[in-house]
Design goal:
alpha/beta, Rossmann fold, 6-stranded mixed sheet, 5-stranded parallel sheet, 18 helices, 14% strand, P-loop_NTPase, ATPase domain protein, prokaryote domain protein
Length: 519
């Protein structure tokens, strides 16, 4: 039977159309803040459920009858050349047109064209609040789309009204966007007049960061599909999807939709397997849907580049809650909230290196039908593959590293691009990259075999010994005894020539068989 509901990957979710979890399930704090007539901010990366939460919140408040509530977007005023006067009109028009979706006519504000006073957001909200018997909860979306003096003007008007709430101004205002309020200051030119305080919105009581789905919540979401169709997402499938997505809501829905609709063609009698999950992951990465494209676009920004390079290399970054680059990457959902700092989920860990070394991947000519790195029994010849990379690296690296935007992470990215053929041949690469570890670990799975590669830059003379100790510990955690330590020399070939830096050595270390590959 065909399900009436489906996994949504575009726009906000509606319970009658989409599988969804109650977005207000863990948000007692929001209702407490509203009850206390507080102003607050809600922020989260794109496509994590902000707009769904806002719509659900406004409808619930209106239904319960103690407040009147409207969600509206200020994005129409979000460009640099706009004047304050025009911005005010656009924002007020957006508020008025949105109010009809949530309120009956008597609770809506006056049509802007009939407003006889000076048309500012502050005046408009004052007159609306005075005309109502119930307090107003205003949910203002896309606040961080505003720039310069327009942003200053909107925040100042809201701050002015805060003093006369709830009788003569909205009782509660929530500002919603990608970033917390501290980031708004960076959207204002230094030459512009400040708001006269350390924070541009110092009346806010709380900043609420929306979290990702837990494994239990993913199970709950998928069980709705099972209830509708009888098609089951087994525990091992949910576990793997959680590993891939880290609970990122768009990815959780996208993987399920890819399996159910694209791969299984909505044949609900078919069993969902781990192979379907891997295929769905690969399809989504290859297709680079809007969500992934918006993530990739951020990689060009300098403060994102600094953090992502450090993660790929395992370099140290001094963690500081006030370090804006780290907070920025966390708010965008690129890095995890927990230490050690790493890329937020396995799909992002997969796509980021692919994007950063795409030009190289495209230029590496794939062989014809004969894949020289595959043995006659169909197994991967890792020694042959890495020796070929040594040769490739010594001949091409200096030219390629010069072209890379991410020069610091260049050696690691070159090897990952070279190993991409393993994935193209049906294998899998799990990347373990985290700030401060001094290394990157790759676990390559191919035709039943596993290979551990540890990548390390030779920044210090102790790099080799540390690398041996680290890979031995890593092999212990995996219950393996064989691994490869890849050491990249960072001094130019004019100082250390290629004929002395390219080395291959098999040794025993802490009861492990380690192949040291230097270049």
């Amino acid at each position: 039977m065909k399900s009436k509901r489906y996994f949504n990957t575009t726009g906000f979710c509606m319970p009658e159309r989409h599988y969804m979890i109650d977005p207000l399930r863990n948000q007692k704090i929001i209702f407490d803040l509203i009850e206390k007539t507080q102003y607050f901010t809600i922020y989260a990366p794109r496509q994590t459920g902000k707009t769904t939460l806002l719509h659900e919140l406004a409808h619930r408040l209106n239904k319960e009858g103690n407040y009147i509530s409207v969600v509206f977007s200020v994005e129409s005023a979000g460009y640099r050349s706009i004047t304050e006067e025009i911005a005010n009109k656009k924002i007020i028009n957006s508020l008025y047109s949105s109010s009809g979706q949530y309120l009956n006519k008597k609770n809506c504000p006056i049509p802007p064209e009939k407003y006889t006073k000076d048309l500012t957001l502050e005046n408009y909200l004052i007159d609306w609040a005075i005309s109502q018997t119930k307090p107003i909860v205003l949910l203002l979306d896309e606040i961080d789309s505003l720039y310069d003096d327009v942003l200053v003007s909107v925040l100042r008007q809201l701050r002015n009204g805060f003093q006369i709430r709830p009788k003569r101004f909205p009782s509660t205002v929530a500002l919603v966007g990608l970033r917390d309020v501290r980031e708004y200051k960076t959207k204002v030119r230094p030459s512009e007049v400040s708001l006269g305080s350390g924070s541009p919105f110092n009346i806010k009581a709380e900043s609420i960061l929306l979290g990702t789905f837990t494994k239990e919540e993913i199970t709950e979401l998928y069980s709705q599909h099972t209830k509708d169709t009888g098609q089951i997402f087994l525990k091992e499938v949910v576990d793997r999807i959680y590993e891939l997505t880290g609970g990122q809501p768009w990815l959780v829905n996208a993987i399920a939709r890819e399996i159910v609709v694209k791969i299984l063609n909505e044949d609900f009698t078919k069993k969902i397997t781990l192979d379907h999950v891997e295929s769905a992951k690969e399809n989504i990465i290859q297709r680079r849907d809007t969500h992934l494209d918006s993530l990739i676009d951020k990689l060009k920004e300098e403060r994102v580049k600094n953090i992502v390079s450090a993660i790929i290399n395992g370099d140290g970054v001094l963690f500081d809650n006030y370090d804006d680059s780290l907070l920025y990457c966390r708010d965008l959902g690129i890095i995890s909230e927990t230490k050690p700092i790493r890329i937020a989920n396995e799909i992002y860990r997969e796509i980021i290196p692919r994007v950063l070394n795409r030009n190289l991947q495209d230029s590496i000519e794939e062989e014809g039908e004969t894949k020289w790195y595959i043995k006659s029994n169909g197994k991967l010849d890792m020694d042959k593959l890495l020796k070929a990379f040594q040769e490739f690296y010594s001949e091409n690296s200096e030219v390629w590293l010069e072209r890379f935007d991410y020069k610091e992470a260049g050696p690691h990215l070159l090897l990952m691009a070279f190993l991409q053929r393993v994935i193209n041949g049906g294998g899998r690469i799990n990347r373990e990259m985290a700030v401060g570890t001094g290394r990157t670990d790759l676990l390559i799975e191919f035709n039943g075999d596993k290979f551990v590669l540890e990548l390390k830059l030779k920044r210090m003379p102790s790099a080799r010994q540390k690398g041996l100790d680290q890979i031995s510990r890593y092999l212990d955690t995996l219950g393996m005894t064989k691994g490869y330590l890849i050491l990249f020399e960072i001094k130019p070939s004019s100082i250390i020539p290629w004929e002395t830096r390219v080395k291959w050595e098999d040794i025993s270390h802490q009861n492990k068989n380690i192949t040291i590959v230097e270049m």
